[in-house]
């Protein structure tokens, strides 16, 4: 079984991003970039399926400018077999990403597509579901467990009330939540080996996809700041303040 | 202008987040209809009909919709949504699962987790875990929108008298099925709807110690939450997680116990009216957003608070 795994280049999760002073965009000058943490979990899950003998090949795909090849190489160092870049310029919205991924799915015909549930820049949480609808595939979103069972996959999902398990016909989509697995670190020999693994580049035109955006970012601003309050001396003072000042208990 | 609001419900009753979505829909203007898709969902439909400001309730009552499988519900919503300018839902786990499929079927973008309606086509939404607020404009004729419930007041649950109309359309994609669920049963209020929330973090040290929060929660009528660190460490289940990738809460009173205050946690609770932090590390970032900070060992402070409440 072939597994396609999508990875996105985003600002490293340790970086505190700020709006530019003129509000035109976020300030990404000289900011450290990395693979989106949820995508890293997706790669790990795909590699584990291969190690378990369930998957035969793991293909990592990313959409973006040339720089995203760095994240594809990261996925290859973690154990993916080959890479695909769909070369785009500027910001690409989830609907367009989903259309491009559908083009890749048609070429590659994977049995399972694993994506992160959201990227930590746009926080949209859309791409996997949109790909599912466009490709006519079922989806197990926010997955905390993935079990292949013949021609089906059972996915346990993190939902508002607890956990839900669904059975999906293959081919299917899985989007990862935080507790699906703990990604490994790439070893130095594997990082070296990854440089030699094949990486194909396509354009949106190769896949027959129109990349026109539907959403435009008008401006950005910092969130309303919350003022730090006071430190209380002890429990008595805390309860007094909550009763008589804040009047919330 | 007309808007279809997708109800969040458990068949028997309507979930509060639906009321916040109705308020967001009112900001768009025009008639508001609610869709209740489920199985044996008459209770939820009747509750939806009573919501103030609602024109009509559409009820799709069929086994195919019982467990809110996205593959089935999205086909229904896309079909019914053809007749509306906007399709709106509170950003619950169900809506996050289903609405992007709806948007893709209709070939429009989705605008996720809006926190304000600036005009009929322009919205504000948090990005980068809430570190930045973006204003976005949609060029689509039809808009698919999910709403951050805590950013909008709840519409009145009573006072409306919408007509209730059955929808016959049955969409069973036949590619997915429900296997089972583990739902936490609790007498406490729901985390996202509780007036008071008390959350524990890594400082609680283990799951057993979360019992220290029980007595206080009982006395305050509070829901109990947790930080991602506490959930990842296996102290408590995932449905208790408050934060960017967990639940977003904005109660009147939020008490953070043994929580350092990582940005991902703050994103889930910083809109609370009053925030209390209890932590033995006086430099913990949580104190920068707390109205009242108590630097103390939680194992001393919690029993004392419980006894003095």
From TrEMBL, chain A:
Gene3D superfamilies: HUPs. Residues 23-211 form the Electron transfer flavoprotein alpha/beta-subunit N-terminal domain. It comes from the Bacteria. PANTHER family: ELECTRON TRANSFER FLAVOPROTEIN BETA-SUBUNIT, ELECTRON TRANSFER FLAVOPROTEIN SUBUNIT BETA. It comes from Pseudohalioglobus sediminis. InterPro entries: ET-Flavoprotein_bsu_CS, ETF_a/b_N, ETF_b, ETF_beta_N, Rossmann-like_a/b/a_fold. One of its GO terms (biological process) is carboxylic acid catabolic process. One of its GO terms (molecular function) is electron transfer activity. The electron transfer flavoprotein serves as a specific electron acceptor for other dehydrogenases. It transfers the electrons to the main respiratory chain via ETF-ubiquinone oxidoreductase (ETF dehydrogenase). Keywords: Electron transport, Transport. Its cofactor is AMP. Signal peptide: none annotated. This is Electron transfer flavoprotein subunit beta.
UniProtKB/TrEMBL annotation, chain B:
CDD domains: ETF_alpha (cd01715). It holds the Pfam family ETF. This is Electron transfer flavoprotein subunit alpha. Signal peptide: none annotated. GO terms for biological process: fatty acid beta-oxidation using acyl-CoA dehydrogenase. Binds 1 FAD per dimer. Its cofactor is FAD. The electron transfer flavoprotein serves as a specific electron acceptor for other dehydrogenases. It transfers the electrons to the main respiratory chain via ETF-ubiquinone oxidoreductase (ETF dehydrogenase). FAD binds at residues 202, 227-228, 241-245, 258-265, 279. Coiled coil: none annotated. Residues 3-182 form the Electron transfer flavoprotein alpha/beta-subunit N-terminal domain. The keyword Flavoprotein applies. It comes from Pseudohalioglobus sediminis. Keywords: Electron transport, FAD, Flavoprotein, Transport. Belongs to the ETF alpha-subunit/FixB family. GO terms for molecular function: electron transfer activity; flavin adenine dinucleotide binding. SUPFAM superfamilies: Adenine nucleotide alpha hydrolases-like, DHS-like NAD/FAD-binding domain. Heterodimer of an alpha and a beta subunit. The keyword Electron transport applies.
